[in-house]
Amino acid sequence: MNATKPLTIVIVGGVAGGASAATRARRMNENAEIILLEKDPDVSFANCGLPYHIGEEIPNRDSLLVATPEFLRRRFRLDVRTRHEALSIDRQNKRVEVRRGETSEIIWIDYDKLILAPGASPIRPNLDGADAENVLSLRNLNDTDRIKAIVDDKQTKNAVVVGAGYIGLEMVEQLVQRGLNTTLVELQPQVLPLLDPEMARPIADEIEAKEVSLLLGRSVSGLVTNGNNQVTEVALSDGSTIATDLVVMGIGVQPNIKLAVDAGLEIGVTGGIATNDFMQTSDPDIYAVGDAAEYRFGPTGKRMRVSLAGPANRAGRLAGQHAATGQSDPMPTVQGTSVVRVFGVSAAMTGLSCATAKRMGVDAASVTIVAKNHAGYYPGAQVMTLKLVYQAETGKILGAQAVGGAGVDKRIDVIATAMQFEGSVRQLGGVDLSYAPPFGSAKDPVHMAAFAACNQIDGIETFCDSDADLAGKQVVDVRTAAEIERTPLSGSPLAGTSEKGIIAIPVDELRDRISELDPSLPTVVSCAVGIRGHIAARILKQHGFKVVNLSGGATVRNRVNFASSNEHP
Amino acid sequence: MNATKPLTIVIVGGVAGGASAATRARRMNENAEIILLEKDPDVSFANCGLPYHIGEEIPNRDSLLVATPEFLRRRFRLDVRTRHEALSIDRQNKRVEVRRGETSEIIWIDYDKLILAPGASPIRPNLDGADAENVLSLRNLNDTDRIKAIVDDKQTKNAVVVGAGYIGLEMVEQLVQRGLNTTLVELQPQVLPLLDPEMARPIADEIEAKEVSLLLGRSVSGLVTNGNNQVTEVALSDGSTIATDLVVMGIGVQPNIKLAVDAGLEIGVTGGIATNDFMQTSDPDIYAVGDAAEYRFGPTGKRMRVSLAGPANRAGRLAGQHAATGQSDPMPTVQGTSVVRVFGVSAAMTGLSCATAKRMGVDAASVTIVAKNHAGYYPGAQVMTLKLVYQAETGKILGAQAVGGAGVDKRIDVIATAMQFEGSVRQLGGVDLSYAPPFGSAKDPVHMAAFAACNQIDGIETFCDSDADLAGKQVVDVRTAAEIERTPLSGSPLAGTSEKGIIAIPVDELRDRISELDPSLPTVVSCAVGIRGHIAARILKQHGFKVVNLSGGATVRNRVNFASSNEHP
């Protein structure tokens, strides 16, 4: 770098990662020339807030503008250029080809350091009608304005949301709050496919309780348009059709990597721009952050894409510093921690689900508990289900999921923090969390889950999955008769009666009635949530039974879809 | 142990630690004889819930009985003996001398393993009148019933609470909710003496806003009684008196160690029963848990008493397992994590405060940030102040305090979890927390605090404490003129005007007006909360200034008590 010429940092993309990079670069280097290129008209807007403006929870559109170009110029002396689209990178000469939106003029901008934060684009279905005026994805303020205009239109009565991921669910919530008849279509047999099925179920129940038509295991096969380039009907893979005034597509995103690919930068195995620990690409003068980049994923140690705002912001800040000064801390691993609120139920997760871990060939085990967010004797306690996934042998935490009322975010954040330290379930059982009756319990749900996992590792107790095949097992339901009658255990063999069917013995009677059970049979105990099952399992194990406790008890098992609940699955 | 004689585990104390020990021991060992001795009539009651029953937030007294003796007998086959007071331990013959409350009969109970969970007793002031009928501490259900009866009496108008620790504050909240004129007296010049003064201040402000008379820096010097053994007036060290119908003493607890001392068990330096990693005392057949025991404290690695329910429950569980089976995991370190809600403000803390760390000679540094609990653009965001204390050189986290609205518990739990792993502020800056607008921010308050600490360690930015003496400093207030007029910076030299007084330059004008400042003077920048101060400090530092940023800005500084706010302190 010439001493008389300031360091020039060019940043492609001005939202989460790009804006963080630019402002940190400025704070680290007053003299650098920092050019922020953004193809859209807005920078640094609150992309996670967009659904809530459509739903009018955030009434003022301006509050979505976290930082305007003018603000960034004034406070950070950034050279913010909106409607400037980067077209190509000339790595040889260290310059970027840019199209200026107003004039379509092509210019070249030199860089010393280049930070790519181009984000991702919504996947559009390859169907006629996908370009209709009322078929929209939600990615930026322009999308927001267009969707909101349709929702605001008093003629609009019906909406179809395609895809039950985070954005799809948030849009369903907001559209219902705006009074639309809403249908949610999802290809997978569950909402939130990143979660294990039984953990996603309470979200599905909640949206059905809000009279959303939930159509799982179906895809959109056609979009019927009228003469005005409006879709009026959505056709599904099962042959059914839904009349609609609005289609919101939330079927995922694809990283914007064309610029990187064309420039010959290395692309990782998950299709994002490959990065090192300082978010440098295969060209050390070029960084990549945000949805288009790959991160090191904590549970596996492997690099992968993580389309979340938190890592984007932190990686942008880090890349901005490194670009401006040549040094920074290494980028920490990312756990993929996320949360979504859907009406009165929230779901949070971090790391790997059990299903994903098993798909990847990881030797994963799990425990599931049902507990309250604070002391049960203090009014207003809300129930959550917490599932902890860990390496079966070592106990290293691989992930967790929580679904329920208040406090799911806190528990997942605590577990994600333990994962940042590559912690084990044993260490998690020792975390010292704040407790007062309005906030938690002396034994927090996090502790209860960790204790259960440690019991399993130590051979003190073995759990079976909530969807286990109970055929041929001696199933002992240790709840009271009244509870069993109210909520029978689903998916059971010969439920309720008969030999080798369910045997009902309340836990408090188990020691006296143990002779009613056959110690030679593989035995499953179940209760409402697993606590009494734990006690029963310990009693039976010490009497020589080969016994497992049904994880999460009837509460979680009854969320599993069995072909027929009272027959062999 | 004779094969025909079962293992006998005797537990002294049947509340948090003792009850956890007993039930875990049973789950681990069906054959053991487990005797739970409790001198009071109740076991396993919700001691943290007692204030809320007095305040009628928990209307049903029975809901405080987490587990009755009958329940523990039925479900866990525990030999629960209430009103049984352990008087002495005969270690030679492994037996405990016990007085049966109903008959005062003395019996001896043999043990193979003994678990001491005797708790702590409220400290009573050494004053005439301290035994009056309306001078009460809150430790058990009997205390609760007596206090509640007085509060329920329509004649009761005035209450004095002595001690502004957790119980004192919770009682103030509940008494106010019951309509009493309440006075809070505290010896220290602040509420919550475990917190740094400026962090405790919002709690003081909140209780004063609820029209509680808050008398700091004063002690009770006398209790004036009437002929009915009722205190009618409380005399204070400043010579003033307060008429009252009820006095609640919350001036701390002393561990119940007489049994252990008399038995010759080792007592630790903090006055609790010394324990090893398995909660064994100096006699390996005797364990100690709960408020009477010592734990290994994470921030210092030293053993100390920690009078909190969470560690008591976890240590009890661990000791119960170890006593029943001869093995368990080691007891993890304890961070002293706690939380209290006082009307609309909550305070949570973990580890060491800055003041405590410095008193202990630890080379502690700190940063303080002011941030919202979730995205500011999403409605209902609440402000919190978060202070992070760490080892100045290594960055190892020593503690944290958070005060404000919703979400302080979550941030402290995340930091406490990082502390469990002996984490540094650098690692804390990398935790991957869940984010959606209703739950958090892409850069969480935890990140912001950790980033600030890392900046300080890396020499990127230096903070000065909110109570720093600004005399002789070039103080630059980078807020707007309107903000400064609304909320002047307190405790400033020659505030507002004059040479070497405060110089007002809005951050956005700083680059252009930098010639107005003298780079040879030690310089302090301040804004509202520290963010603009950070930007300003970076600008000035890169221009050769020796500059520090006022931690937490005017918001936190204006909570500090200065002798006179506009003169040299």
Biggest sheet: strand arrangement of chain A:
3-2-1-7-18
Number of strands of chain A: 30
Largest interface, C-beta within 8 A = A-B, 93 and 93 residues
Tally of DSSP helical segments of chain A: 15
Major sheet summary line of chain A: 5 strands, parallel
Task: Report the structural category of chain A.
Answer: alpha/beta
Count of domain modules of chain A: 4
Task: Give the CA-based shape of chain A.
Answer: globular
Radius of gyration of chain A in whole Å, from Cα? Answer: 27 Å
- Overall mean pLDDT score of chain A? 95
Contiguous runs where pLDDT drops below 50 for at least 5 residues of chain A: 495-499, 564-569
For the terminal residues of chain A, how far apart are their CA atoms?
70 Å
- Assembly type of the chains comes to homodimer
Pfam families (chains A, B): Pyr_redox_2 (PF07992), Pyr_redox_dim (PF02852), Rhodanese (PF00581)
Cofactor (chains A, B): FAD
Keywords (chains A, B): FAD, Flavoprotein, Oxidoreductase, Redox-active center
Domain Rhodanese (chains A, B): 469-553
